[in-house]
Amino acid sequence: MTLWYGERPPILASSSRSRQTLLHHAGIPFEVIPADIDERAVENGAAVSAPGEVASLLAKEKALAVAARHPGRIVIGADQTLALGSRRFSKPKNRDQAAEQLAALAGAVHELHSAVAVVINDEVRFSHVAVARLAMRPLSEAAIAAYLDTAGDVVCTSVGAYQLEGLGVHLFDRVEGDHFTVLGLPLLPLFAYLRGAGLLAF
Prior knowledge:
The protein is α/β, with parallel strands linked by helices and 202 residues long. The chain has a single domain (11-196), classed as Maf protein (Alpha-Beta Complex). Helices cover 34% and strands 24% of the residues. Helix 4 (95-105) packs across helix 5. The protein is globular.
């Protein structure tokens, strides 16, 4: 039995391994065509600043950019922001920045806003933002150094310098929110939309 009812598989406008793995494990066929947009330029040109609004905007813009080059295709865009109070974080550029981010997050609760959008041609058919709240345990300078030594360069590939599905899990006391939101793709609302659109078998 085929799970996907669309004529062609959807396009995932993201190079994220985590998002690709989530769709793959859920049995959804898809193509990967990462969006080539200047995220900071998009942010600076928009009148939004709240973390959830920024994530939603970028998810839509990524999907729209790819959809413009692939008429008629279903394109899934996604984005995630990390906020500690009013401070928003970006991916660390090096080990020193990773250590600084972890020191700022340690002992506090931060939020991950994960957005998904579905676009066909120039029309946003669906968008959703989910929030997860993560309590990082207090970390000494030595503990942060030990984590960075063990995790290696992968810490620079994720905002906040951690991957909860990997060694980053050791940094936390509590997580409020679903696994998919933490990994950057709110699957349940996405699948509810696709099911309602007659694109999933069940």
